[in-house]
Automatic annotation (TrEMBL):
Its EC number is 2.7.13.3. Residues 213-266 form the PAC domain. SUPFAM superfamilies: ATPase domain of HSP90 chaperone/DNA topoisomerase II/histidine kinase, Homodimeric domain of signal transducing histidine kinase, PYP-like sensor domain (PAS domain). Pfam families: HATPase_c, PAS, PAS_9. It comes from Uliginosibacterium aquaticum. Residues 346-592 form the Histidine kinase domain. It is an enzyme of class 2 (transferase). The lineage of its organism: Bacteria, Pseudomonadati, Pseudomonadota, Betaproteobacteria, Rhodocyclales. This is histidine kinase. It catalyses: ATP + protein L-histidine = ADP + protein N-phospho-L-histidine. SMART domains: HATPase_c, PAS. InterPro entries: HATPase_C_sf (IPR036890), HATPase_dom (IPR003594), His_kinase_dom (IPR005467), HisK_dim/P_dom (IPR003661), HisK_dim/P_sf (IPR036097), PAS (IPR000014), PAS-assoc_C (IPR000700), PAS-like_dom_sf (IPR035965).
Length: 611
């Protein structure tokens, strides 16, 4: 940029103000000028810059930046709402009025920086999912380098993740050249004809993943790994703007299936050879020709039946894999809840022992105290019979000093309050045991739902008491046949969610209703919190869906609750209005059917259906 002279400073500022890119003139830690394009971007009036230094307006990062020589970097500018706008800043030294200044051109790159931040969060979540996925999985980045590789993929390929992550030629050890992965095709770097040649026709667009592909590929023996067939499936990874930033590919060992197919092919070839042989022989005997034709037709029919069976088994295998993944996720969450219940029951048991003998000793202490107070009253009554006047005066002074009347009254109040405190602790301990049901068997039981609701309310009281008032509207309910600890988990999830739905700074209310109707019971948990939008309400039972910040929720609570209610042959309904509140309604049968009551209560049930 040309040097600015003192004589034409106004004209120079006017010219800079016409530039559509943000421009700043900086002297030391002072901001001398900002053009209109920059002011519009950060939402400031020119008058707002008067009397403020660059450190106060933009922070230390700009000061460190401007004290150097020519420089270029991305810097944040704080906005009034607490967010930042990011600028790609290019700094050049210049002169203004004979003084050294810095001329900074500022290009708004906020959208790009936020997209990169979102992409980093997505990659972190993708890493966690891939590592726990039981199917061999790897990920390619923009440069077609392998960025992720889970343990299952290491086992299938026989290659260590440390040896292949960061490379674009890791497949060479397996006979796959650069650019021949399905993931490369998904990212648009390989033409379809080349891949069809590489996969010998066993290559097709994915019917389930948009922009994805599937294929069957053969890996020859390498190292300690024997030759094997793999089913590969690849799909694109997109950023928040919908641009493809990478691809994910899964590998499933189908060697056994291919062996079956090879056996069928051999059988087919053997059948054709047999037919050819019989055809030559049947040229002289029509009757034998007819028998051979019938035999060939029978063999072909058997072959088609086998082929259909293999196809059916393959479909069942994919379905079983999906169900296994979901069951594994739910088993992990159930195990966590069971561990928490076991811990709560253990703590309750440990507290019960000292509370028991404290409570017993307290009764004896009350009797002893009554006797001591009676003896003290007798001493006070006999004080007038003491002949020594000095002794009487001394006792009266001592009685006045310790305020005996107040002491007798206060010690009884202290005993009463202490007894109430001990009874409160015993009630909390009992509610913990009722909530966890560790002492009970894992079989279906006849229980009082109100007792489960009360114990759960007591357990989650600390989550609710600072945010909402609990209103109980109980009807007359019969005992129902259920798995009480699992229903208590449902109650806990719904009550805690209701408490978390309360807006900040406003105390709300949570209403718990119960009614009996036509061989069923109905339990409603209603709050007057923030409510849910329709698009959110449609997804609340999906595993891992949550509206809470990262690290504040797993997204499994309502999904598992749905599975528990479904296992009880009941149903769960939800209604919600934004700004008004939400109501969850549980419908449960009083008695379970024979199949339900005989089933294993520890097997989790997924939320395959939605209300």
């Amino acid at each position: 940029m040309d040097t600015l002279q003192a004589g034409d400073s106004r004209q120079s500022f006017l010219l800079l103000d016409l530039i559509e890119v943000g421009v700043l003139v900086i002297e030391g830690e002072s901001l001398l000028f900002a053009n209109s394009a920059f002011l519009r971007t950060v939402g400031l009036e020119r008058s707002a810059l008067q009397g403020h230094g660059l450190r106060e307006l933009a922070g230390e990062s700009w000061i460190d930046f401007t004290l150097g020589q020519s420089w270029a970097d991305a810097l944040p500018w704080p906005m009034a709402d607490g967010s930042d706008r990011w600028f790609e800043v290019s700094l050049q030294p210049s002169q203004f009025g004979g003084r050294p200044v810095q001329i900074a051109t500022c290009t708004d790159v906020t959208t790009r920086m936020r997209a990169e931040s979102a992409e980093a969060s997505m990659l972190q979540m993708l890493t966690e999912i891939i590592e726990s996925y039981p199917v061999g999985t790897f990920v390619l980045d923009r440069e077609h380098r392998i960025s992720h590789c889970n343990r299952a993929c290491e086992i299938i390929t026989g290659l260590s993740a440390n040896d292949i992550i960061g490379r674009d030629d890791a497949g060479l050890a397996l006979g796959v050249a650069r650019g021949e992965w399905l993931a490369d095709k998904v990212m648009g770097s390989v033409d379809e004809a080349s891949l069809r040649q590489r996969y010998q026709g066993r290559f097709w667009p994915s019917p389930t993943a948009e922009g994805g592909y599937e294929a069957e590929m053969f890996f020859p023996a390498h190292g300690k790994q024997s030759a094997r067939w793999l089913h590969a499936a690849a799909a694109p990874l997109r950023d928040a703007t919908g641009q493809i930033v990478g691809a994910i590919e899964t590998l499933i060992d189908i060697t056994a299936r291919k062996a079956v197919e090879a056996e069928l092919q051999n059988a087919h070839q053997a059948a054709e050879s047999l037919v050819a042989e019989r055809t030559r022989e049947l040229q002289s005997a029509k009757s034998e020709l007819e028998r051979d034709i019938a035999r060939r037709e029978e063999l072909e029919l058997t072959m088609h039946e086998h082929l259909r069976e293999v196809t059916r088994l393959n479909s069942e295998l994919h379905l079983a894999q999906d169900q296994l993944i979901q069951s594994q996720q739910q088993l992990v969450q159930n195990e966590k809840l069971a561990s928490i219940g076991q811990l709560a029951a253990g703590v309750a048991h440990e507290i019960n022992n000292p509370i028991g003998y404290v409570f017993s000793n307290f009764g004896s202490l009350q009797l002893y105290l009554d006797d001591l107070l009676g003896l003290l009253d007798a001493y006070v009554a006999a004080e007038g019979m003491i002949g020594d006047e000095a002794l009487r005066a001394s006792l009266a002074a001592l009685r006045e000093k310790i305020d005996l009347a107040y002491l007798k009254e206060d010690v009884l109040d202290l005993m009463r309050e202490s007894r109430e405190g001990i009874e409160r602790v015993r009630k909390i301990v009992q509610d913990l045991k009722d909530f966890s049901h560790v002492d009970a068997s894992a079989d279906w039981q006849w229980v009082d739902l109100h007792r489960g609701l009360e114990s759960t309310l007591n357990v989650v009281n600390n989550e609710i008491k600072y945010k909402a008032d609990v209103i109980r509207d109980y009807g007359v309910l019969p005992q129902i046949q259920c798995l009480p600890s699992q229903l208590n988990q449902v109650f806990m999830n719904l009550l805690v969610n209701a408490a978390h739905a309360m807006p900040e700074g406003r105390r709300g209310s949570i209403t718990v209703r119960s009614r009996a109707e036509d061989g069923q019971v109905r339990v409603e948990i209603e709050d007057n919190g923030s409510g849910m939008a329709p698009e959110v309400m449609q997804r609340i039972f999906d595993p891992f869906f949550t509206t809470k910040p990262v690290g504040k929720g797993t997204g499994l609570g309502l999904s598992l609750s749905f599975g528990i209610i479904r296992k009880h042959h009941g149903r769960i309904e939800v209604s919600s209005t934004p700004g008004v509140g939400t109501c969850f309604t549980l419908h449960l049968p009083v008695q379970q059917t024979g199949d339900a009551a005989d089933s294993d209560p520890d097997i989790p049930t997924g939320a395959e259906e939605r209300p």
